[in-house]
Amino acid sequence: MKNLLSKIMNEKKLTQTKLAKGVGVSKVAISNIYNESAEPRVGLALKIAEFLNCQVEDLFIIPIILLFGIMVFTAIEFEQYQEILRTRFVWVINEINARAAAEVNQFSWQIKLK
């Protein structure tokens, strides 16, 4: 799985050791994720994102096929990830509705001005 861990850590001037201590795993575990030689479980991905004060989807580039085809979730991790997806889906729908409403509003103002 591709990730932006190195970029975000560099921006925050954070070492792998500090991140590992902050999320409660070994430096080796963080190093493997950092080098993209291992993928974090959902629970760890959420902890890393929280520690870095970012969204998990901004940190890890997860192909949709992996969500349903290959990744193995524990029941708790699956519920957590469902909530993330639900939140992002609601945000996208709200954004589409807001933009559509703005377009309709702009169009109605153009008609009133003519």
Structural account:
The chain is mainly alpha-helical and 114 residues long. The protein has a single domain, classed as Orthogonal Bundle (434 Repressor (Amino-terminal Domain)), CATH 1.10.260.40. The chain is 72% helix and 4% strand. It has seven helices and two strands. It has a two-stranded antiparallel ribbon. The chain starts with a strand and ends with a helix. Mean pLDDT is 76; it is low at 64-70.
Mean pLDDT: 76
Share in helix: over 70%
Number of strands: 2
Q: Separation of termini?
A: 54 Å
List the helices and strands and how they pair.
Layout: E1 2-3, H1 5-11, H2 16-23, H3 27-34, H4 42-51, H5 56-59, E2 60-61, H6 64-69, H7 75-113
Antiparallel strand pairs: 1-2
Helix pairs in contact: 2-3
